[in-house]
Fold these 4 entries.
Entry 1:
Amino acid sequence: MPPRLSPTVRQQRLGIELRRMRERVGVTPKNLAATLGTDLPKISQMENGKSGISAERLRIWARTCDCADGPYLDALLAMTQDRRKYWWDGYRGRIPNGIIDIAEMEHHAESLTILHTSFIPGLLQTSAYASAVFARLRPPLPRHEADVRTAFRIQRQQILVDRPKPYTAFIHESALRMQFGGPVVLREQLESLLQDSERPGVEIHAIPFSLDTFPGSGESLYLACGPVPELDTVQIDLSQGPKFVHAEADLQTYREIKTETEAIALGPAESRDFIRTILKDLAGRS
């Protein structure tokens, strides 16, 4: 098969893990190619996510690199076997690949934790609120593209219905009060947020202005926990598009931010009361 032109973040991640495994014990690409019965370009393509790897070859790769971590290898083997088409593949060519990769990340995660300071997290947005967020992008999106992105975002939310998994959202008061679309849209959004907070597995934690500061206050981050910690991923919003972080040192930093944020944020029940207070502040505004 010819190399993939645009490997997904998940395909790239498998390649990253193959390269880490090889480099950890100092095996050269040339030696690995000889062991697998292939050539150097093929090894490079596998490590870049541009070519897949069979389960048999992955086992040989692991043995050659002295990797005997059973749960980790099982998780990598599962990645090699997953060749299905998913709903998000229907959006390829219509929206940027990075946005599609978020849906793929969510689908395969064991649990999800998000921290937002400027707007409500995507999996919890109403259609009207999502449309208002996309309307604020610069440069402006054509109407049809904004509509496609809104539809994609709403379809992503089925992950909380069809495949429920632990989902924790830390939302700063600034995001809870930011009036994308105006007060009517925000009221509808906050009411929807209260309903979502009662879903099984969903926890919403508010971070009030009254806190002096909190870890990670300068950025929004999305932690997707994999089947083993080595396969955790953090997604960060940038003006150029989503960025996916895999380096262990960076992952550890974001795990610490999560732990520290948990310690200072309001609990689920307190957060619901806090959101109701903001709703009262919005009463009568139009």
Note: Residues 9-25 form the longest helix (17 residues).
Entry 2:
Amino acid sequence: MLRKIDKLVQSFVDQASKEGFELFLSPGAETLRDFSQINSVVFFQAKNGQLFKLRDDYTTSVVEFFNKNLPNSLKVWYSGFVYRYDQMGQIQSNFQLGLEIVPYRSVQDSFVVLRVLIESVLHSLTDQLLIEMGDSRVIEKCVQHVPKKFRKKLLELIDRKDVSELEFFASLNNLDLSDVLKLVEASFTRRGVNQLKEFELESYIEREIVEVVEFLSGFPGVTVEIDFSLARTVEEYDGPTFIFFDLKDPALIAAGGRYRVNENALGVGGTIFLEERAWSR
């Protein structure tokens, strides 16, 4: 597996460099200034009493750098470890290999990000890739009436695609989740690109999805399906999203999409994930 990882990193860096991406460096630990994060990030206390948090996501670091320094644009790639708590409260380390373009200017930016990710993965990890396409605006429309105090739990339930849990959650909290339930049920029964019309999407959303799907269809070994129930950090995303799965050795490989950087700018990026078992076996 280590040989595959080495091949992946080399291929990724070569592809990113050819597309004009530059290396982004960020400290693995930063001063914890926002104490509302204390229950969600991995942190430690230095001998002088100062609190530091370990990096939990590279995209967040890129966005913070852009908003703090206000460069005209960023086109960067990165690699390194991130640290998060799992559902059991245990610290998990993951290796991220990704790239970001800020600000987003056109769908061509999405194509560049996707091309680097796809060609790197197909060259080193697998020759059969499933890409699930979604759009955060579709699911956001379905949950916009839900009070914010229920949002996080609701998105977790949507990600699990458990219809019975969603129905119980709706009944328990007196919520109308009929549109959410339709999306989740459709994620099992209407995944074909040719079924887009059945979702009655806004025309501009459908056009964007079709453009990206047509681009992805040009890669041999890539299968594209639609899943509008993708709820990964939906409040950060603003537009098309994607998830890569290895069809030979079923596993999540990568994810990304377009996201909100600030009130005036969007960004687009994607990250390849390698869990600890990938390099420790």
Note: The mean pLDDT is 90.
Entry 3:
Amino acid sequence: MIEQHSFWPKLVVVLLTAICVVCFTPEANAVNEETIIIDGSTGVRPLVVALTDRYTAQDNTAVAFEVGDGMNPTLRIKALANGDIDIAMASHGIDMDKITELGLVVYQFAKVAVVIGVNENTSITTLSHQNLCDIYSGRFTHWRSLGSNTETITPLIRPHSEIDAEVVMKHIPCFSSLDIAPTIIEFEKSGQMARALAQTPGAIGITTMVRVAQSHGKISALALNGVVPSVDNVLNGSYSLTRNMYLITRAVPTPKITDFLTFLTSDEGKQVIIDNNAVPND
């Protein structure tokens, strides 16, 4: 006698197996992830990316981050208020009256040294304030004038309205009233400046210690008037060229945004900030 087998139990097993495979694939789990959209200051961006990378590396996080390429101060606040982004990055241009009016909250999470960076092929390690002004006025055009190699100096600058340039003009007296040589190349975004410094022999420009840390040795930070832009010198105030870093959220952020903000003040979050040559906020 031919043994008869029921078709339906086998079909049920196949269907249940398929359902379980779908439920436990990364794609299915990703549906439960919250995507946090961050945009704003390009100078704050590299440290935020380092922090989000470390945060998402934790086993218990069900969150993804999208970090944009930059928004000006007005647009970032408008985008946050409208719900187009979840967190705004900022370093200056914060109108606290407007922030309060829109029901937003500002968190300072770090401070970083603004530095004069040079390409790795430049052997010089320190400049006086006057040396710097002589370079940007066009008086010095070769590094040999300053006791370094014979490369032509390629000065780079940020727009005067950008925070890095504002810090330099505030703390280096001769720079505030300097007639910048017309041949100097200007970069609107800090990432553009960092790439040019890393790729251009003889280059000098305004950047931050976070950019230096992430350049893998392609950019060196100069001491100014003999003061090195170290974390200790930022903390004790002897190196005064600094900028604060802020994140701005809506007054009642989601639980996962709150958890990320808490991570910034944890020991692990603070270590990420320190590893990137910045100073955690107390």
Note: The chain has 13 helices and twelve strands.
Entry 4:
Amino acid sequence: MSQSDYREDLDTAVAAARAAGDVVMQYFKAGYDVRDKGGIEGEENPVTSADLASNAVLKERLLGAFPGDGWLSEETADSTDRLERRRVWVVDPIDGTKEFILGIPQFSVSVGLVEEGRAVLGVIVNPALGETICGGIGLPPRRNGEIVGPTDTSDLARAVCLASRTECEKGWFDRYTREGLFARVVPIGSVAYKLALIAAGRGDLSFSLTGKNEWDLAGGAGILAGAGITLVDRDGEAIRFNRPSTETHGYLTANARLMPPLLDLIARERADWRRVQSQG
């Protein structure tokens, strides 16, 4: 499709995500209720009244503008109806709820549009930093209105990796800098925000081998598509969206030059992990 084919969709998504971000910040400053949704063994899975309010704004704005589209949100009960739709909005009203609760400005509102299983555009709003990153097929990434793009770093040893804040706290990324595999690892909460920053050239690569959900990835995947960057799972397979199960096998992304060596590195990492598991 041409640039104009997705322009109306992107403009609507940007307005919706910013409106939701404004609502999120009202709660951020004034207080909110928190409960644990459960569903993640051994970890808290919090949801706040801010998540639910953001979800309501996004759904009203996006489905109000495009009533024939499907809907998938972390904070809406899933329906198989979406599987019959060619276009589906995949959203996370607050990606990085733990960071939101802790007051760390690394949470975001994530909106992605999926067509026939492929993310075609995305908007990530970090309302605490006043940052909007958006883009899509035929629409190069923009950060607060300015056209941006990925880095051209070609050596993993010089690369900046944007990694999960939680996984960094567990020490899972320590060896990558200790052994000189990456130049630097930067911990960031929201998955969607990390992907947007890669598309905007604020980091070289990002990955997680732990399971994710479609709403974590769709918005960022749409922006990456506009930057000409691929998003794959830990097996190196392209991530498809609007599937019966929303779970994905982790994710990997990097600029075009770094993607081949990153895939090779992760293949070795997974082989080592399997060997340890079989010996244990």
Note: The first helix runs from residue 3 to 30.
